[in-house]
Amino acid sequence: MQKIAEYFRDHPERELCIATVITDCADAYVQTRAKAFGIPAHHLTKAQLSDPAYLLPLLAGYEVDAVILAGYLRLIPDFLLQAYPDRIVNIHPALLPKYGGKGMHGMHVHEAVKAAGESVSGITIHIIDGEYDKGTTLFQAETELLPVDTPQEIQQKVQVLEHRYFAPVIADWLERL
Asked: What is the pTM of this model?
């Protein structure tokens, strides 16, 4: 979220903004980051996130046009997919379709990439559909891996790509909507 907020702040000609930040983790540091940028942040319970009568009016109140996921691990409910068709984007820390699906997030992905002996890994920015990591790919970037790279080093290499590409890809995508 921080890299996206910085990118949008530093490129005001793009006329893009983060309307609100929503998290399902009460102590998520993203709330502090959002406050530093003057972005309203909300912690929602699982029940609130699953309730269209609660979540949709909240998003409408901020005039949300699209939803960007960053670190959200749950399957997106159908009502949200219907309210924002082809307008929900996520980033995955691997080159999909490899290493995707339920439970494949964070270090689990990097450990699987290492165990498979891959020579490259990367990121996939994709539109969300009703399945984990199956939506239309908007962008991929890769990084070379060395045989001696640990899962932690793979994570660091992938994170460089996330920080470099996620915000500009989001901005370009939003401008095409």
From this structure: 0.95
